[in-house]
Model the fold of this input.
Amino acid sequence: MPQLEDTLLQALIEERRLSEERALIPGLMQHDLANVLTQVSLASEFIDRGPNSAAREEAAREVRGGIKRMADLLSGMQFLYHTRGGVTDYTRGDLAAFIADLTKEPGVWPAGAPITLELPAALQCLFSPTLVRPALVNLIGNAVAYSQGTWVRVRLSPINRERWQIAVANGGPGIPVGHLPYLFSIGRHAGTPVKSSRSGLGLYIARMCVRRHGSTLRVRTRPKLTVFSFALQGSPDTGRAH
Done:
């Protein structure tokens, strides 16, 4: 009898985990896909009204990047939905190159301070692109949006021989103390008093993706400095730094 109860309990725990995993998908779709559609719509209008060929070409580049991001997002969400916690999505790859390539993608980032990278030459790491990508898109996007034109930095640094920390920092005004208790909640704006069109779902999505990856999203904030960070397993390779 105790064995049957344990089996039922484990089944209930697994069902709850899968339900939470699937509940993440509507938030990802609503937040990221809506942002990309807005970006593509605005850029499309600018193609017709751009003052010169260079401006129109830049707008066309944003449209192409936005369409690629929508395709990647839909593909990733479908994969996440049909797997258990993205387990089969975990592969050994170069996390430093993944971050560097992500920050260069067109049609992803809001206007604001440029993104500075402090990465090792390479970092072979077991990670899930399906989970890490939306986490970083939201963390870096928030950092740019709330930087007030100061600075944004993405750093990948060692904690010990096997664990590395991803830290996304900006020099904006900092997060008000009164916002910290509900910073990662759905339906509450988690930003600063700076005006922004961002929905506030980003930090909830980032925390859930990091949690599904087996880590914890942490935040430190004060005036002129806000840092979000989480840890991953990895081992460095030699080569030139980014």
About this structure: The longest helix spans residues 2-49.
